[in-house]
Amino acid sequence: MSQNGEKAPEFSLANQDNTIVNLTDYRGKKVVLYFYPKDDTSGCTKEAEEFTQKKKEFDSLNTVILGISKDSTQSHETFCKKYNLGITLLSDPDTEINKAYDVWKEKSMYGKKYFGTERTTFLIDEDGIIQQRWSKVKVTGHVEDVLKALSK
Asked: Please, what are the domains in the chain?
């Protein structure tokens, strides 16, 4: 499991504009890397909107926000346009990066078991080291918790 103090697993994923984004592109900046289950669902929309609303505060703290789900780049593009999102969303269709960060988990709904993304956020420092991990994130208040951790 990706833990505090460990090097964050590297990735190269396409964003909503079909541009390849690498974690190494952000050396020298902090990265808030958040994994979410699905575009255009209530909790995921609220989380993306809250990160967008606070983007200037993150920018002022030398921090970029990257969201990852298994949705396609086209789905991300539609989601960003529909809600006027100002953050970068990355597509992990094979769940390779979800697995590398240990957020691809067995879940259960109505007694049926399936695999999906566990809502998780990582704070990665300027050198690519994980500083904090939030697992099983509850959306309400989460963006503020991340800002507080950055302000320490």
From this structure: 12-150 (3.40.30.10)
Question: What number of other Cβ atoms are within 10 A of residue 86's Cβ?
Answer: 14
Per the listing, tokens 């921090």 go with 63
pTM comes to 0.94
pLDDT per residue as tens digits for the range 23-74:
999 999 999 999 999 999 989 999 999 999 999 999 999 999 999 999 999 9
Catalytically active residues are 44
**Among 101, 72, 88, residue whose Cα is nearest residue 21:** 88
Phi and psi at residue 50, in whole multiples of 5°?
-70, -40
The string of DSSP codes covering 133-145 is: EE-S--STTHHHH
